[in-house]
Amino acid sequence: MSLLIKNGLVWLHEQEDYFKADILIKHSKIKEVRPVIEGEKGIPVLDVREGYILPGWIDCHTHLGIIEEATGKIGVDNNEISDPITPNLRAIDGVNPMDIAFKDAVRHGITTVMSGPGSDNPVGGLNMAFKTAGRIIDQMVIKNPVGLKIALGENPLTTYGADKKSPVTRMGTASLIRELFMQAQDYMSLKKADKVKKRDVKLEAVIPLLRGEIPLRAHAHRADDIITAVRIAEEFKIEKLVIEHGTEADLIADYLFEKKVAVALGPMLTPRIKMELRNRNYASALKLMDSGLTVALITDHPYNSIEQLRTIAILAVAEGLSPKDALKCLTVNPAEILGCDDRIGRIAEGYDADLVVYDQEPLSINAKVLQTIIDGRIVYSA
């Protein structure tokens, strides 16, 4: 797809202010960003009339298409609770791009999400990142997988412990995760020696993690659970750890900075219905960013609805987060966390042409999306 966007107020992540510019898109990529670009024959022109142009928003932790809206129980595919250890589950086998929430995503400028298994299992499965417009999920994928999901804290304990099945305790959860990783290490040694007689789908799924090819993505709210995730990652020499949710991450921000751990923070709009959420506060993003961490804001859709992503950033700004940092939490930072920052999250030459156009500054509560553009194609227009 090719398109020339004229007269936009463009936000570049390294600048505080917007500047007036045109954007030329060719073959679904950003070709040029300059104050004035002359039109070319055959390329359609979109005059946004000083609309605000930003990289399409990125939500790096959702269950979009896996927990479907308006379907009831039959559309809830996030937790395979027949077994607490399911590293072999793949998000791509569960995402339905016909879920009505995809329309909400593009209508509110969200162009990329991460979706994956839920948090009832100590080891949940493999996540992936994909665009929010399309009919065939395989054609929407940006990167698959983008991490292996583990879960610490209340969820595995209430799912299995209530029936006196393992895990019953936090120690039990950590032990199950270690056992799987140890088995995967042994399996890798057998493979190297050409002694594997039968492939193991669970252990095969862990190999990319232990080789450093994908990150460990740990569901953890409480500070002690976050530290357990760090401990396990270090024990198995896992190179990249992302804390998902991180309700109490701000209490140990200096420790996480030292360990080079990123935080996908949220959901922020839920009530404190679990003990783990009692320290939830809107100022967490400011504290984590001030400590030097890479932070992304998330909805955890559908626990916060996908269209509430920008609202979360507005609330963080109200607590003192700078507008520039708030925008980074929706663009460059989640792109980095997903390992896709060479393609998305910026308005720059060679990047995917994923853009959102607002009628006014996007952190104004009154701002409305005028257009959402994915791969150079206008997928929503007000």
Structure explained in plain terms:
This protein is an alpha/beta fold and 382 residues long. The chain folds into two domains: 1-55 and 345-382, Urease, subunit C, domain 1, CATH 2.30.40.10; 57-343, TIM Barrel. It is built from eleven helices and 16 strands. The chain has helices spanning 101-107, 137-140, 154-160, 170-192, 201-210, 223-235, 253-258, 284-290, 309-318, 323-328, 332-337, and strands at residues 3-10, 19-26, 29-34, 45-47, 52-55, 57-62, 110-115, 123-131, 141-151, 216-220, 241-245, 262-265, 295-297, 355-358, 369-374, 377-381. Strands 1, 2, 3, 4, 5, 14, 15 and 16 form an eight-stranded mixed sheet that branches. Strand 6 (57-62), helix 1 and strand 7 (110-115) form a beta-alpha-beta unit. The longest helix is centred in the middle third of the chain and has 23 residues, at 170-192. The model has no long low-confidence stretch (mean pLDDT 97).
Short description:
This protein is α/β, with parallel strands linked by helices. The protein contains eleven helices and 16 strands.
Features:
single chain, 26% helix, 8-stranded mixed β-sheet, 24% strand, TIM Barrel, 382 residues, alpha/beta, Urease, subunit C, domain 1, globular, 11 helices
Here the CATH topology of the largest domain equals: TIM Barrel
**Total tally of structural domains:** 2
- What is the C-alpha radius of gyration, as a whole number of Å? 21 Å
| Fraction of residues in helix | 25-40%
Q: N- to C-terminal separation?
A: 20 Å
Low-confidence stretches: none
Biggest beta sheet summary:
8 strands, mixed
Count of distinct strands: 16
Order of helices and strands: EEEEEEHEEHEHHHEHEHEHEHHHEEE
Mean pLDDT: 97
Number of helices: 11
Overall 3D shape: globular
CATH top level class name of the largest domain: Alpha Beta
Pfam families: Amidohydro_1
Organism: Desulfitobacterium hafniense (strain DSM 10664 / DCB-2)
Protein name: Amidohydrolase
Keywords: Hydrolase
